[in-house]
Fold this protein.
Amino acid sequence: MATENAWDIVKDLLRMGSALYRNGDRIAGAYELNQQQFIVLSEIVNSGPINQKQLIGEMIIEKSSLSKIVKKLKSLGLVTSTSSPDDGRAILLSATQKGATVWKECMGNFHDWQVDWAGSLTKEEVRQTIKVLERLKELPL
Amino acid sequence: MATENAWDIVKDLLRMGSALYRNGDRIAGAYELNQQQFIVLSEIVNSGPINQKQLIGEMIIEKSSLSKIVKKLKSLGLVTSTSSPDDGRAILLSATQKGATVWKECMGNFHDWQVDWAGSLTKEEVRQTIKVLERLKELPL
DNA sequence: AATTATTAGTTGACACGTCAACTAATTTAG
DNA sequence: CTAAATTAGTTGACGTGTCAACTAATAATT
């Protein structure tokens, strides 16, 4: 493959990622969160109780950063932690009632935005997009 | 379109962006640059002389951040600035000989990595990827 | 022409992500 | 069983991106 194409693809993906993070920061900002923090909350809401090590396996984030995000989520009253019965070092994270509510509202705002953003994609275009992304995810990175 | 799909697409793009930035930071790190700084250098090498306002138009970056990146590139001796003949407030950025050399070497390293990363994509897959990305770039963001 | 509004670029405060170092718990090796 | 190695999570130093404030030049308005 011509590396011109690869560089263009890389640049497009980088740019798109940045734009989406900015947008996510704006939407989640109403709840004092940024996009990454919202993703952590989402994972906890959907998969909790969950320990940090598992969370790190689902995302691209340093454990130190996650530790700080979790600390913030706890201070905002969105998440609680309990010790893990399986491993004395680990803690299990769960969403609080407040956390679940904030997540639901914020997710609703994301959905509203998504209707605007991608609503003009045809079913075929969605299918192709998903297919391409699945393929890209397979590439060694 | 089902917003489940949109959210999945968003998450994939966010994750891919992060992974690519990390990878870029690693490759450009050999030259004391990160991915974003390398992109700025690339733009200057390829489009210089260019002012910062134009650069900002090509990227997703705050002018303040760009100012800091330019400052770093200058201190590394990769970029020089001259006043613009058209606008007394603006400065024109050009790559130095050293800057062009660093860019060429680093770009070579990116190409090498790209061969590993995307070399397994068929021509059709590349075509589809580019087509999908072109479409995504049209979406309001 | 003078005044007001806008803009190119800079700087500082601050949030946040990475890396390194650390503590305490667990796992592995002898 | 004991010692060494590894690991879950925390904390601090530091680089970097955003936002706000600022200066000086330019553009627009009166």
Q: What stands out?
A: Chain B has a mean pLDDT of 93.
